[in-house]
Design goal:
single chain; about 1100 residues; alpha+beta; Methylamine Dehydrogenase, Chain H; Immunoglobulin-like; 8-stranded mixed beta sheet; 5-stranded antiparallel beta sheet; about 30% strand; globular
Length: about 1100
């Protein structure tokens, strides 16, 4: 008999997230946010009691405080960053701006501190804010200085009479702060934890914190911050809002039930011992913990679980057996909500359809729940702590600690970075208190600083307590006083710089443009000064914008003063007008601020290049326009002088491009696209700004030797300033292999992307960037009848189009989806389909062989990222792989395991899968590396890949080069990035529905336009080849009996890899290491 009976569905409410249950004098109400930006309360008969607009869609789930009036209230935070308090009748009490977006992975709840209470809000900017319950005024704010923190757990874990707040953050720490926002302790995890939600429990021995992170580990932490035990469970995948607590087996002791976002649900005892685990838990990923409810009336708690992107509500009994499941109309965000809304003593279960907002109600048979939502009770505290005796807290006395130096910098309006000299193994808890009475807290250590924003003038106190990381012993303290004025220092600097510029313009008489520009700057500054008195009465947003305006203005003034000083000297030296200045950018992928950058050294005297035969390199010349009008500059190259005396066209080996700003998925702008300059070679530079000229170097077939050319830059003005920059180019005696010794797969689907009209050029471009693994979706097509026999001939035309354009050394990953049922035939995964496939596959194998592609040149790619969507993709992988191998054991099968695929799952398929391309972040580099370690023992082919979004906002190349060098270090023979081109949207588009921008190139008229990223990847792939060559040289020496040289080469290679990692893949340092590797490979060292 089913334990749940559907009572009703409220389809017109437009509800959002997980409802809360609010007891009132008029009865119990269900309170929920709506997609239209309201909070609504309804009763068990679906009658609406009140509806309150809150300005925008809710971010957090609604929480309630059901205490005595007047503290009884409803709390929520919106996506727009407003914290909201309503009375229990829906009246708005206050709305407070926390100035940061919130989401379901944040929270709002009340912390109690004796006679004072605080509303605690976590947000997507990595902060926790404490607000006064009665007014919404800010009391304090804790800053992690990372992009996000997860939901908080709130409770008195140290029994001092005041609540503590525990939360997880994107910096891989679990934090505990006190009622006033000060750090008590932090626990390091092995991966980011920004989506993880801790809970507070009492197993009978006092309070404990249970917390997870993306490292898959559940941690039990004492009130003092000591990790008591850890448990990985049976599954894999991060722990997000995935932990529930309750006495599931009615033995009087609380157990923990938790889920991995990838797959498993499991229960553990109070000592971390695994009680049971169930891996067959559904068809979607599951970041949300189950609700624990006695739905069948047996006195024990069942676990009610839903998956994100899944449409089934699953019920697991107290022993982990799935006993019931219910098909829902749509998916959910969070587990079902359990409450006795109608007051009959029997629990109702409520679900909200994430797509339609429909609210459904089910009646169960039981009347008990210990954990009614994914986050416990409805108060947003994620706690089931019992009341205990107050123990009191040991307070630190700063006067007893040795004095240490305060921050190295002064405070000013705007963002302030507080930098302390902290030795390794220590950290500092830092606070900032201003005249507004709001205290800001943060943590600094040897790897990071603290950043606070100041928007009000006045006196500020900065205090810091230093601790030893190992035992959290305080070892020093500092207290510093600062006075923040209304831009007094900035005004003095601006007046000095303007006077300096006036002196240059008047004293040297260069041109009228500087005098004009200086007058414009003075007018701008005068306008700023006129608006200065309005600052103190402006909103925070207006103040922030004004601070930014002043800082940008000063930055431009500093730049102009420096460049015009150089202009004076150069004009005198050259005896000719100087309208622009060029300089070499040491790191081509460094941050680029066109209106602020100045050269670190001299203007470009010469360019020195070293490349390997067949190798690629990059150099960048930044060009500053010194005029107050836009400037066009023509760039051109002399013919290249070769060692033989011959002169060859430069365009064969040097391509001139402009670093072009494009919109990103986060509505910012990024310097990413690299269109070439074409026949004219023109670079446009805005007035008093700068541009970057990017030069791709392709050594091609040039032999070793010394080469030279020159880069010419001419302003297209009557004065026509010119620069000639000599280029000295050394081609080393090391020759890169014609084909890279690493497989490179980057998911390009040109025929279904905006590159479809230049598909052939796109394939050539991929090959030129060392892509040698192609994901093939152009398939041979044939139908089969209802008996499982093929109908007619196979249509090879689509398939042959791509085969004819691949090189013999290229490899293919092929979707097996070209076989289609006739109108009256059964679909796939039927005996008829399997029979048809057994006829289809031999024809395919033969055809590929005739085209020059043997078994080693291709593999089937049945599913993408098994480990997502519960276990169903793993099941599908095994089913298809076994079918292929049964038909032809020589066929290769490829897969790309994601975080939910466990070692046990890998063992299931190890005999039928040949190539494993491991997710870099969630599988290969996880702390335990258990899946990688297992696969290394099998002798299978191992590659890695990653698919981070937001790549156009990244500065530098760490994301790309780290993977390539790590792949070499771990013995992997393939790498890949999602993606070269896969989406159907315009690749030049910025914000998009999926909020990601993975693609490596942009659309062009005849060829793809590269990005700064894809050029970096090509160089990184060649670095792999250099390491491979050094290893080969060491092996050759060993075979020849020169053990000493073999050991020297091996040690030097290992040191180079260590140096690259220690530099965090800094392009300047890697350029030097590149030369070292080439020399080692050729014996020239």
């Amino acid at each position: 008999m089913s334990s749940l009976t559907h009572l009703w569905t409220f389809g017109t409410g437009g509800f959002l997230g997980c409802p809360a249950v609010l007891p009132t004098q008029d009865g119990t109400l269900l309170v929920c946010g709506t997609k239209s930006g309201h909070i609504v309360a309804i009763d068990s008969d679906r009658n609406e009691h009140w509806r309150t607009p809150v300005g925008s869609k809710l971010g957090t789930w609604v929480s309630v405080s059901s205490g005595e009036s007047p503290d009884r209230c409803v709390l929520a935070a919106t996506e727009a960053g407003k914290a909201i308090r309503l009375s229990d009748n829906g009246t708005l009490v206050w709305a407070s701006d926390v100035e940061a977006e919130t989401s379901p992975f944040n929270s709002i709840g009340i912390a109690f501190g004796g006679s004072v209470s605080r509303v605690i809000v976590t947000d997507a900017k990595g902060r926790v804010t404490g607000l006064a319950l009665d007014s919404g005024d800010h009391a304090w704010q804790f800053h992690t200085n990372v992009r996000a923190v997860g939901p908080a757990a709130i409770g008195d874990i140290d029994r001092d009479g005041e609540d503590e707040i525990v939360f997880c953050a994107g910096d891989s720490f679990i934090y505990c702060i006190d009622f006033d926002g000060k750090l008590l302790w932090r626990v390091k995890t092995d991966a980011s934890a920004e989506f993880s939600a801790p809970i507070l429990v009492d197993f009978g021995q006092g309070p404990r914190v249970l917390a997870g992170s993306m490292d898959d580990v559940l941690r039990c932490i004492t009130p003092e911050g000591e990790v008591e035990w850890t448990c990985r469970g049976a599954g894999a995948g991060s722990l997000e809002i995935g932990i529930a607590a309750g006495d599931i087996n009615a033995d009087g002791v609380t157990e923990i039930v938790f889920v991995n976002a990838g797959r498993a649900i499991q229960a553990v005892a109070s000592d971390g011992t695994l009680i049971w685990a169930n891996m067959d838990s559904g068809d979607g990923d599951q970041p949300f913990a189950p609700s624990l409810v006695d739905i069948d009336g047996d006195g024990k708690l069942e676990s009610l679980l839903v998956q994100r992107a899944g449409t089934v509500l699953r019920v697991f009994d107290s022993e982990g057996v799935q006993i019931e499941n219910y098909r829902l109309e749509g998916t959910m965000i969070g587990a079902p909500v359990a409450a006795d809304l109608d007051g009959d003593g029997i629990i109702e279960i409520f679900t909200v359809n994430a797509t339609t907002g429909a609210l459904s109600c089910f009646k169960c048979l039981g009347g008990k729940t210990d954990w009614p939502t994914s986050r416990g009770g409805f108060d947003g505290r994620a706690s089931n702590l019992r009341t205990g005796n107050l123990l009191g807290r040991k307070t630190e006395k700063l006067r007893d600690l040795p004095a240490v130096a305060g921050p190295k910098n002064q405070l000013q309006l705007g963002s302030n970075t507080l930098d302390y000299d902290l030795p390794s193994g220590t950290y500092a808890s830092v606070s900032l208190l201003g005249a507004d009475g709001v205290t800001h807290f943060g943590v600094a250590d040897s790897d990071r600083t603290v950043e606070f924003e100041i928007l009000a003038c006045g006196e500020y106190t900065v205090e810091a307590t230093m601790y030893r990381d190992a035992d959290r012993t305080p070892i020093g303290a500092s207290s510093s006083q600062f006075s923040v004025t209304l831009f007094e220092d900035e005004q003095a600097e601006a007046e000095r710089l303007l006077k300096h510029l006036s002196g240059i313009a008047g004293g040297y008489g260069i041109t009228n443009d500087l005098a004009r520009g200086t007058r414009t700057r003075k007018l701008t500054w005068h306008d700023i000064l006129e608006r200065l008195p309005q600052y103190e009465t402006s909103s925070c947003e207006q103040r922030r914008a004004f601070v930014g305006e002043i800082r940008h203005f000063l930055g431009r003034l500093r730049r102009e003063a420096e460049l015009q000083k150089r202009r004076v000297a150069l004009t005198a030296e050259r005896d000719a007008p100087t309208e622009f200045l060029p300089w070499i950018v040491e790191d081509p992928w460094s941050a680029f601020a066109p209106e602020l950058d100045v050269p670190a050294g001299d203007c470009a005297p010469r360019i020195t290049l070293t490349t390997d035969m067949r190798g690629h390199e990059v150099f960048v010349v930044q060009i500053a326009n010194l005029l107050d009008v836009p400037l066009e500059i023509r760039a051109s190259l002399d013919r290249i002088a070769c060692p033989t005396g011959q002169r060859i066209d430069a365009v064969t080996h040097l391509t001139l491009r402009k670093v072009t700003w494009v919109p990103t998925s986060t509505s910012k702008m990024g310097p990413d696209a690299l269109p070439d300059l074409g026949e004219a070679g023109l670079v446009g530079v805005s007035a008093t700004s700068s541009a970057r000229l990017w030069v791709d170097v392709d050594t091609g077939d040039l032999p070793a030797g010394e080469y030279s050319t020159a880069l010419h830059l001419r302003a297209l003005t009557p004065a026509g300033t010119t620069w000639e920059i000599p280029i000295h180019w050394t081609v080393s005696s090391f020759e890169l292999p014609e084909q890279m010794p690493v497989r490179f797969c980057n998911w390009g689907y040109p025929h279904s992307s905006p590159l479809r009209d230049i598909e052939e050029a796109t394939i050539r471009d991929m090959q030129a960037h060392h892509t040698n693994v192609f994901v093939i979706t152009r398939l041979p097509k044939v139908a089969y009848d209802n008996a499982g026999n093929l109908q007619g001939e196979v249509d090879w035309s689509e398939h042959d189009w791509i085969l004819d354009r691949l090189r013999p050394t290229d490899m293919m990953l092929i979707s097996p989806g070209g076989l289609h049922p006739a109108s009256d035939a059964p679909s796939s995964h039927t005996p008829e389909w399997e029979r048809a496939f057994s006829q289809y596959l031999p024809l395919w194998v033969t055809h590929l062989a005739e085209k020059g592609f043997g078994y080693e040149s291709w593999a089937f790619y049945p599913v993408d990222e098994p480990g997502l969507l519960g276990g169903k993709l793993i099941d599908e992988l095994e089913y298809q792989a076994r079918l292929f191998k049964r038909i032809d054991p020589r066929v290769q099968v490829y897969t790309d395991p994601f975080k939910g695929m466990t070692v046990a799952d890998l063992r299931r398929v190890i005999d039928v899968v040949d190539i494993f391309q491991l997710s870099f972040g969630s599988v290969l580099t996880e702390a335990s590396r258990e899946r990688y370690n297992y696969l290394k023992t099998t002798g299978k082919t191992l590659w890695t890949y990653e698919a981070y979004g937001g790549v156009k906002d990244m500065v530098g190349v760490k994301y790309y080069w780290e993977m390539i060098w790590t792949a070499w270090e771990l013995g992997l023979t393939g790498v890949g990035y999602w993606s070269y081109c896969t989406r159907g949207v315009d690749l030049w588009q910025g914000p998009n529905p999926n909020n990601n921008d993975w693609e490596m190139v942009y659309g062009g008229a005849r060829v793809p336009v590269p990005s700064v990223r894809v050029q970096a990847i090509r160089i990184g792939i060649e670095d792999y080849a250099r390491m491979w060559a050094v290893q080969n040289a060491a092996e050759t020496a060993r075979i020849a009996g020169d053990v000493n040289r073999s050991e020297i080469l091996t040690e030097a290679l290992e040191e180079a890899v260590r140096a690259a990692r220690n530099s965090k893949w800094n392009p300047v340092q890697l350029a030097s290491l590149r030369r070292t590797l080439s020399a080692l490979a050729t014996g020239n060292t």
